[in-house]
Amino acid sequence: MNHRFLTLAWVVLLGAVLVTPATAFKRTAVGEDLKAFHLDTVAGNSLSLSASRGEKATLVVFWATWNLRSTQLLGDLQQLYAEHGGSGLQILAINAEHAEWQAETLQRVAETVAAEGLTYPVLIDRDLTVYNEYGVVAMPSALLADGGGKILVLQEGYPTAARLELRDQVLIALGVLEAPPVEEVATNRERLTDPKVRRKVEMGRLLLQRRRPSRAVKVLEEAIADDPTYAESYRVLAEVLDALERGTEAEAARARLAELEQPLETAVAAPGGGETAPGPAPREPLATPPTPPKTAR
């Protein structure tokens, strides 16, 4: 078995461990080819997928300005692009803001591009055509494809642990990072979180953005009851408790988060043989979050 086959097998297997493809995208699966599209950039230029794919890897990201994790993901990917954009990597960030286009959306997107210093293409999916063709379930979501456009990994959301994992997936696809034995990666299945739990946590985050923190607490408590080892539940719960001015309980949630994250980040970083800088700290929510796309969950 040659090195290239082992590398691609590791990427596909790790993608299956991180997220169930049917959960991440309703109409897209690992092993399929990227769906063709033409969209306008923020600057108004037309761009096609076929003319923009990376030589070795293409990362397509669906995001929205109303979603806090989206801007964190965009910033992290800018650092990755600055380091490896010349190594055959292309990143395409597709903004899917609302089910109906709003005039002020373009300005918000442009402000985000400027604030994060993004140099990879940022595209506007005005009527959510591409969003719906791919069957996106949550914001943000990402898919990684090889140089031929075949999808290797689907990822729903952007929890803290995924920062290291997504970076490693890209570097392995580029051939920059050595893939560990497939048998070693298979043991990570023990960390697989039930998709229902992940959806509850995303719902808790959305309820917070919609100024319904009391309801968010109930949803997050349900998620923790279902899986008390999923770190992201405690992160969002702490943010919600802060909004409710329940500081003592928020600190307790952060303490539990710290206990769960440290061994996980150490374990994920180990295959790469080196340390990876942590992502940016969570940002303050928008004063008045815009209404999300009607089809987003």
The radius of gyration computed from the alpha-carbon positions, rounded to a whole number of angstroms, is 19 Å
The SSE string, one letter per element, is: HHEEEHEHEHEEHHHHHH
Give a count of the beta strands, DSSP E runs of length 2 or more: 7
CATH superfamily of the largest domain: Glutaredoxin
β-strand percent reads 5-15%
What is the name of the CATH architecture of the largest domain? 3-Layer(aba) Sandwich
Report on the biggest sheet: 7 strands, mixed
Total domain modules: 2
Net shape: globular
Report helical residue fraction.
Answer: 40-55%
Q: Structural class of the secondary structure composition?
A: alpha/beta
Give the class-level CATH name of the largest domain: Alpha Beta
Spatial strand sequence of the major β-sheet: 2-1-5-4-3-6-7
Counting DSSP H or I runs of 4 or more residues, the number of helices is: 11
Poorly predicted sequence stretches spanning 5 or more consecutive residues: 1-22, 182-191, 263-297
CATH fold category name of the largest domain:
Glutaredoxin
Notable traits:
297 residues, alpha/beta, Glutaredoxin, Serine Threonine Protein Phosphatase 5, Tetratricopeptide repeat, 2 domains, 7-stranded mixed β-sheet, 47% helix, globular, disordered N terminus
